[in-house]
Structure formats: structure tokens, C-alpha cells
């Protein structure tokens, strides 16, 4: 099937493909240190499960990376994906001043992508994003391999209440 006809597989990055555990502590303090959290994103280790899922999906899908990272991290994000062997794909990032909850930002992008061709699956670690996507009729693979029970609430709160990742 030509690339322009393959359905989309949409993958989150933080805590789905990348291990955020070494920088999550920047969000646990008050005020949250977003600059440091994002500055260290380029140092994240790869989550092997995420790489395996991305590689498998790339065989039959056009890969789309949908991240709440701000646009100012595009160069570092593209380099990280390439350096770590992730399949080529479009990368959609949050605008630098966009503070909408991840649910709104990501569902809006899924709707726009679905206007072009089918979205076969969304792979994301955020329970609220996954639930909203399923409710909207998308197939979801919950990336439960990226964060442990201790760090999940910190990242999920940041995603929803401050619209940062």
C-alpha cells in the first residue's frame, strides 16, 4: 500500500517512547521547573517497549508522533527520535504558548488527522487522553510501561492542569 494511503499510527513521546523518570522530579516541586524538565528531554533513555511498538506499527502504518512537548524542542526531539532508531514520521508538537489540557490538544489533532485518512491506533500513557480517544471512537493502546505508580500522578497532573506535556 502506498505511504499516502496507509492508516495513521499516532504515538505519544514522553513516558511512551522516552523514559522521563530521570527528569520527573522537576515537576514534583513548587513551582514546577518546566524549563529544566524540557531541557533534559534530549537525555531520556528509550523505553524498549515503545520502540518495539513504533517499529512494529511502522510496517503497515504511517507513523505520527503527537507530543505535548513545546515546539521549541522540535530540533532536540527530531534528533532524539533519529538517534534512537525510531521510524520516520510526522511530528506534531504543542505550540510554545499552548496551555490547553493534553486531552483537548491531542483530540483536536486526532480529529484533523482523521479528516485525511483513518487513524488506526493511538499509543499514549495518559489515562485521560486514552479514555477520551476511546470515547471518540479511536482504537487506543495504553502505554503502561513508561511510568511507575509513584511518578504517574506528577506527570498526569502536569499534563492536564498546566497543559505542558
UniProtKB/TrEMBL annotation:
InterPro entries recorded: HAD-like_sf, HAD_PNKP, HAD_sf
Domain of life of the organism encoding this protein: Bacteria
Membrane spanning residue stretches: none
Residue ranges annotated for the Polynucleotide kinase PNKP phosphatase domain, each copy included: 10-144
Matches recorded under SUPFAM superfamilies: HAD-like
Protein name: Polynucleotide kinase PNKP phosphatase domain-containing protein
Species assigned in the record: Kribbella capetownensis
